[in-house]
Design goal:
The complex is a heterodimer. By secondary structure, chain A is mostly helical. Chain A has one domain. Chain A is built from twelve helices and two strands. Chain B is an alpha/beta fold. Chain B contains 18 helices and 14 strands. In chain B, helix 6 links the parallel strand 7 and strand 8. Chain B is globular and about 75 Å long. Classes of the chains: A mainly alpha, B alpha/beta. Chains A and B meet through helix 1, helix 2, helix 5, helix 6 and helix 9 of A and helix 2, helix 3 and helix 11 of B.
């Protein structure tokens, strides 16, 4: 299969957009998904941001409002959940035959993959915005006109972060052949990346061994950069966050592309 | 790869094609060669796992050939997949339309993928919708379509980019007789009309092949057994076909002996043994496992299961990769298990996971005798001068104390041809008599 697809590498941008649109439309039309993502956001915000509100958190010696701290972490986490499970839409297509229709079309695999990645990333972006919008409505970030700029700055970060995560989703779903593994992925990939990213608790408040583990989680840096954009403070320097995100994003998306290229549908 | 020039009169050319699947080392296609002329309809006929779909998949660039050269519309499939893809339309065996999109959107996406400009798209989509009578349903979500409508939509989709060659993989599988007729009409129109499309079709249905195809290619075990027009194939089976049905009998062991005796009667050329077991729904009601997106409906999974259950190789993969399916098999009703058991010959059986293998072997050995009651044995005998030989044959059967339910004598049909070729090939492989009967039962089961 791979030999066949490697002979053509041109990207058909019309097709990319059509595929991305399909992904976005699918999200929009599936009202249960939209509602559940908003409801989940509200729940997270109330439980975590509300529940942790009495904690005092300082980053780099600067005291931070704990609700804003948690809310920004949760906004970053949305990328993780949506990105990985969005990548799973490939699995659905594989399962129900639509993937064959795509593979037999005269477009490169690269086009197919690019279209899907773009679609899921945009969809992730929408969800991140919903989450930030909710937090702002609840007053977690305070009311400040500067928030507009900060949110604008978050968008490119979110896009970059979601690319890498979609890469993970693509890799998993192209290799996955049965539904039962969903639970496995939830337990062994999504949850560790979630809990060990410092989204919910302060990085400097945990014992050193755990800090080391958290530093090995590439998603920690995405969360950190998110905070820098939204709150103006971070644990790691800006350049480190950015480098880790770019490098890991590139590696993950390349691995995703490779598995996608190798995919065979019988 | 050997350099073979493509002949312009043949729109599809297959030369010494071999396809071996990596997992399982199964030779799905075993060195086949054939050509299809422009404007011809060719039907690939054969039991499940014969290699029909694999052949189409290779031609459609979905699978790499292990060896051999294939040309479609003058382009080398291995070297010019893009051009080949643009020249073909493919209607897959199982549904491959996106239920979450409307009919029109499915077609639109297809047209974009095939690089059609917007204006042309609108016109063309309207045109193909008209061909398949779906104009008024274009703005409905495909998940709300009936099976026949989905099928028609898929055919429409295959036509948008005006392919030179159309591949139809079991186009009428599971459709009601009226819808089948309708689709046949469409297929004929495409072939005969201005489009003059070349069509390759795979099917289990004899009547479908007989009705549509200019030429029929019977395949089994990855090989082409015979390829000719329906007329010529039937001519080869000269004489008459006698079908004898028996009352339910416990003494099935007598059949190999009877077959032996009847074969000695002059004029008798070929005998095949079969059983008419009760058809039963073998797909259980299923509940969605947790964690599946809500967009996945049980119907879709059932359709997928139906497909997997019809192909031993796919079943094998499922067992290996999903332990859940293995448990489903073990707890399935016996009649279902039997059906599955007969799909596996000894060679395939070697690859089956151990616990299932034991069960399959048990069933094949006939260790569940109480179920045999369901079986109504029958013999299909092809013989010269049937009218003259019939009394002799009946006499032989009476000597063995078997009760005949009905006798039917007729001119050979395509079904008889199929049975003649596919049945006899298998029978020659085994010598053991009881095994013989089992194999023959298996053949009949496969044919369903």
């Amino acid at each position: 299969m791979s030999e066949l697809s490697n002979t053509q590498t041109k990207i058909n941008y019309n097709a990319v957009w059509a595929l991305a649109k399909r992904e976005l439309l699918g999200f929009w039309r599936n009202k249960s998904r939209v509602i559940s993502s908003i409801a989940q956001g509200i729940l997270f915000l109330f439980v975590f941001a509300g529940g942790f509100s009495s904690l005092s958190i300082t980053i780099d010696g600067v005291p931070v409002d704990s609700r804003a701290f948690t809310a920004s972490g949760i906004a970053a986490i949305v990328i993780l959940f949506t990105g990985i499970f969005g990548g799973m839409s490939i699995f659905r297509d594989k399962m129900f035959g639509f993937m064959k229709e795509l593979l037999v079309a005269p477009v490169s695999r690269r086009t197919l993959m690019f279209g899907r990645t773009l679609g899921i990333s945009l969809q992730t972006l929408v969800q991140v915005l919903i989450m930030i919008g909710l937090s702002i409505t609840f007053g977690y970030y305070g009311y400040d006109i500067n928030l507009i700029w900060r949110v604008m700055l978050v968008l490119p970060v979110a896009l970059l972060a979601s690319m890498g995560i979609v890469g993970v989703g693509l890799t998993i779903s192209t290799r996955l052949n049965d539904m039962q593994s969903f639970g496995l992925i939830q337990t062994f990939i999504v949850m560790p990346m979630f809990w060990l990213s410092g989204a919910l608790f302060a990085f400097n408040s945990v014992p050193l061994p755990m800090q080391v583990i958290m530093m090995c989680n590439p998603f920690t840096y995405s969360v950190d950069l998110f905070r820098l954009m939204l709150l103006g403070v971070s644990y790691f320097p800006f350049w480190l966050d950015l480098i880790v995100m770019v490098v890991f994003g590139a590696i993950l998306i390349l691995i995703g592309a490779r598995s996608f290229n190798k995919m065979e549908v019988s | 790869m050997t350099e073979i020039k493509s002949n312009s009169e043949n729109i599809v050319e297959v030369k010494d094609l071999v396809k071996i699947y990596k997992d399982g080392n199964v030779k799905a296609i075993d060195k086949i060669s054939f050509t299809v002329k422009k404007g011809e309809i060719l039907a690939l006929l054969g039991p499940n796992g014969a290699g029909k779909t694999t052949t189409l998949s290779v031609l459609a660039t979905l699978l790499n050939a292990t060896k051999g050269a294939t040309f479609v519309n003058g382009y080398n499939v291995a070297k010019d997949p893009d051009k080949v893809r643009k020249s073909i339309g493919f209607v897959f065996q199982e549904p491959s339309v996106d239920g979450e999109m409307k009919g029109w959107e499915n077609l639109e996406l297809h047209a974009v993928l095939y690089g059609m400009p917007k204006k042309e798209r609108q016109v063309k989509i309207q045109e193909v919708l008209k061909i398949v009578d779906l104009e008024d349903r274009a703005n409905i979500y495909v998940k709300n379509y009936s099976g026949g409508m989905k099928r028609r939509l898929e055919i429409a989709r295959g036509l948008i980019h005006e392919p030179k060659v159309l591949f139809l993989d079991e186009p009428t599988l599971g459709l009601d007789p009226q819808t089948r007729r309708k689709i046949w009409e469409k297929i004929k129109e495409l072939n005969k009309g201005d489009l003059n499309m070349t069509i390759l079709i795979t099917t289990h249905y004899m009547d479908e092949a007989d009705e549509l195809a200019d030429r029929i290619c019977i395949m089994d075990h990855g090989k082409i057994i015979v390829m000719d027009t329906s007329e010529n194939l039937k001519k080869q089976l000269s004489g008459d076909v006698i079908d004898i049905q028996f009352e339910n009998v416990d003494n099935q062991f007598k059949f190999p002996m009877i077959i032996k005796q009847v074969k000695k009667i002059s004029g008798v050329k070929n005998i095949s043994f079969g059983t008419a077991g009760n058809e039963q729904e073998i797909i259980p009601k299923i509940q969605l496992p947790p964690g599946m997106p809500a967009t996945v409906s049980p119907e879709m999974i059932q359709a997928r299961m139906r497909e997997i259950l019809s192909d031993p190789r796919k079943l094998l993969m499922a067992w290996k990769k999903m332990p859940m399916t293995a448990n489903m098999f073990l707890s399935a009703p016996l009649i279902a298990k039997k059906k599955i058991a007969y799909m596996f010959d000894d060679k395939l059986l070697e690859e089956v996971p151990e616990n299932i293998k034991q069960e399959l072997i048990k069933i094949k050995k006939g260790e569940y005798p109480e179920e045999e009651v369901d079986i109504e044995p029958s013999l299909s005998i092809s013989c010269e001068n049937g009218g003259k030989q019939l009394p002799l044959i009946i006499q032989k059967i009476n000597e063995n104390n078997l009760i005949i339910k009905s006798v039917d004598m007729h001119q050979p049909t395509l079904e008889d041809v199929f049975l003649h070729y596919v049945g006899s090939v298998i029978r020659e492989e085994s010598s053991n008599q009881t095994k013989d009967v089992k194999k023959m039962i298996q053949m009949r089961q496969l044919r369903k």
